[in-house]
């Protein structure tokens, strides 16, 4: 079968494309290359398209026809929480507009299987007791335009299912990290592990954004998920769509185990050999103290669960870092 992967040249998309190709699926990629890199997809057909403009619907339909696309994995999106607060209308245009145009093309072309990349950002800053796990049927109250666009896209998927029979699955990614292959790592990302690696390799120390949270060591707890585990979840979701007429609509993709910022930094010290002596900074606005997935729904329904731990994530992020990248500037706090 041929799978269309939007955002296939980006960090997560490239892992998904490689796994699909490795198992023998035909793949075609659509990417605007604003953050993706064409080399990430090797010789996979790649069409450079901006999904957010209405004019994209026609070329998308043509592409679906030409390649015999039977299902779509929609990863392409803007993903910076801070930027989304500065440019909310643009984020809606990009993320919700892109999804709407894709759905129009799929409906016209008669493609009814969609896997959509959602986010734990749909949960916002939940007011829950320490140790609580996020469940898909619990409240979704995003606190950033980014998280809102992901939730609206989930609704759009549900509405298309009701209106014309779309079979849709949304995967709510938690904190994605590591690399399945060194050349597919994401060292430029503005996330804890790459930021800390940039700091250390520039002779600086990472900054912990607050150590007075109601957690065991006072630093925020997140559910870090290896990008290769996440990519495997995409294949499980795709297979589920092919088998089941009425799939459940959203699944958390996490390990179910949280790690604190201090624990992640300690692992970075072990993996890299750097002496890690972080400084303590102010809290970052909007950070939840705890955000950990209840991962039982995806395990029970798709038969998927994570197999790689935090050490594997940090080791692989570091292996991806060293040979291919210099020592860029530390991004501003
Ligand atoms: N952190 C630091 N110092 C840093 C960078 C991060 O202490 O230099 C802390 C943050 O405060 C947070 C944790 O490390 O507690 C993880 O931060 P990230 O920025 O790596 O990730 P977030 O949990 O903020 O965000 C991630 C994704 C978002 C997504 C969100 C969903 O990057 O796209 O998860 O919860 F929306």
Compose a concise summary of this entry.
The chain has 333 residues and is an alpha/beta fold. It is built from ten helices and 14 strands. The chain has two domains: 2-176 and 225-253, 3-Layer(aba) Sandwich (Rossmann fold); 192-223 and 255-325, Alpha-Beta Complex (UDP-galactose 4-epimerase, domain 1).
How far do the termini sit from each other?
45 Å
Please indicate the percent range of residues in DSSP E strands (runs of 2 or more).
15-25%
CATH architectural designation of the largest domain: 3-Layer(aba) Sandwich
Low-confidence stretches: 326-333
Bound molecules: uridine-5'-diphosphate-4-deoxy-4-fluoro-alpha-D-galactose
How many helices? The count is: 10
> What structural class do you assign from the helix and strand content?
alpha/beta
H/E series: EHEEHEHHEHEEHEEEHEEHEEHH
What is the number of domains? 2
Shape: globular
Radius of gyration: 19 Å
Q: What's the story with the biggest beta sheet?
A: 7 strands, parallel
Q: What is the tally of beta strands?
A: 14
* Annotated CATH homologous superfamily of the largest domain: NAD(P)-binding Rossmann-like Domain
Return the average pLDDT rounded to an integer.
94
CATH class of the largest domain: Alpha Beta
GO biological process, one term: galactose catabolic process via UDP-galactose, Leloir pathway
Pathway: Carbohydrate metabolism; galactose metabolism
Protein name: UDP-glucose 4-epimerase
Enzyme class: isomerase
């Amino acid at each position: 079968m041929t799978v269309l992967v939007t955002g296939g040249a980006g960090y997560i998309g490239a892992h998904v494309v490689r796994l699909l190709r490795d198992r023998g699926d035909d793949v075609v990629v659509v990417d605007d290359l604003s953050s993706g890199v064409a080399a990430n997809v090797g010789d996979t057909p790649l069409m450079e398209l901006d999904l957010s403009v209405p004019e994209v619907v026609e070329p998308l339909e043509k592409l679906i026809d030409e390649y015999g696309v039977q299902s779509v994995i929609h990863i392409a999106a803007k993903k910076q929480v801070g930027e989304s607060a500065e440019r909310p209308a643009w984020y809606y245009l990009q993320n919700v507009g892109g999804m709407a145009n894709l759905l129009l093309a799929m409906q016209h072309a008669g493609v009814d299987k969609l896997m959509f990349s959602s986010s734990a950002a749909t949960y916002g800053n939940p007011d829950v007791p320490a140790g609580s796990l996020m469940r898909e049927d619990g409240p979704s109250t995003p606190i950033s335009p980014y998280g809102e666009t992901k939730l609206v896209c989930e609704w759009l998927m549900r509405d298309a299912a009701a209106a014309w029979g779309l079979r849709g699955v949304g995967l709510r990614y938690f904190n994605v990290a590591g690399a399945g292959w060194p050349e597919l790592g994401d060292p430029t990302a503005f996330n804890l592990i790459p930021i800390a690696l940039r700091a250390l390799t520039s002779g600086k120390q990472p900054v912990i954004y607050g150590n007075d949270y109601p957690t065991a060591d006072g630093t925020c707890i997140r559910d870090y998920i290896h990008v290769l585990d996440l990519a495997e979840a995409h294949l499980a979701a795709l297979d589920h769509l092919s088998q089941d007429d009425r799939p459940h609509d959203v699944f958390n993709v996490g390990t179910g185990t949280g790690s604190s910022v201090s624990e992640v930094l300690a692992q970075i010290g072990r993996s890299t050999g750097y002496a890690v002596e972080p400084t303590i900074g102010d809290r970052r606005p909007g950070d939840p103290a705890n955000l950990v997935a209840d991962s039982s729904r995806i395990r029970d329904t798709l038969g998927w669960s994570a197999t790689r731990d935090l050490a594997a994530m940090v080791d692989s992020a570091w292996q991806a870092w060293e040979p291919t990248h210099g020592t860029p500037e530390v991004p501003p706090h």
